[in-house]
Amino acid sequence: MNQNIFITGAAGKIGKELLKTLLDKGFDNITVLCRTEEEKSSFSEMKITPIVGDLLNDYSYSSYLEDVDMVVHMAAITHTNDISKYYQINSEATLNLISRCEEYGVKNFIYISTRAIAPTGGAYSKSKLMAEKHVKESCLDWMIIRPAEVYGVAGKEGVDMILNNIHKFPFVPIIGDGEYEIAPVHISDVIKAIVSVIERADRKSRIYNIAGPESFTYNQFIAKVLDLKGIKKRKINIPVYVFRILAKGLALVFKDRFIAVDQLPRLLSEKSSDISVAVRDLDYNPVKLEDMFDAG
Length: 296
Description:
Radius of gyration: 19 Å
Distance between the termini: 33 Å
Number of helices: 11
Shape: globular
Mean pLDDT: 93
CATH topology of the domain at 5-151 and 184-212 and 271-286: Rossmann fold
Number of strands: 13
């Protein structure tokens, strides 16, 4: 592929899988922004160009945007108890990146957002909503991808953490009444969706929800997972106010090690699981939860 692509936030599991897929598809001119020399070295086995720069200092990387056709902006901070970092990195740094893209004549801008962008979703949600506003108001040909709750990343957060805790704990904790919604999506489907958007760069001004094929209440999700795993465990509801106090206490003692207080409103906020636009434009066909359990 002849496109020159510049990617931020590629050091995580999703980013690494995206890079592998793009390379397999013949994209051979990819520049990746890294935060440190150590992060840069993690890409040494890949046929890409890793550079070190700071999203909060746009002049540390801006010269590399020359002759770039497309930016895929994945970098974000997702869990912190320092609220200001959400706005600095997720919103302000995105605006600065957009400005530099406009300055250097970058045409296409793909923004990896989140479907948790309700104003009631806490500082993270608000910062991503602000970032989306910057993207929409830019002069770039933009597309926004809003992934749901991703699993299959072998991580210690989100749905993977829930799945791990079902095995570790003698009971299943459920925050509040458990009637808030979750639409788990496998990492493979997220990667396919991002690649499809990259390959369809002629489209613009589109927003894609990338969720699983089924939407559950949290109670339904837990019941389904227990059934699929053949596990019987007691479910214990933790009142929201109790969890909030517990989260604040942990944050005071351990900073960001265990939990971000902001995760609670994000979990409880309303979210769209409408994937019809992705199905129409991207031939999006996500796998069901039970199919991935069978495959595992």
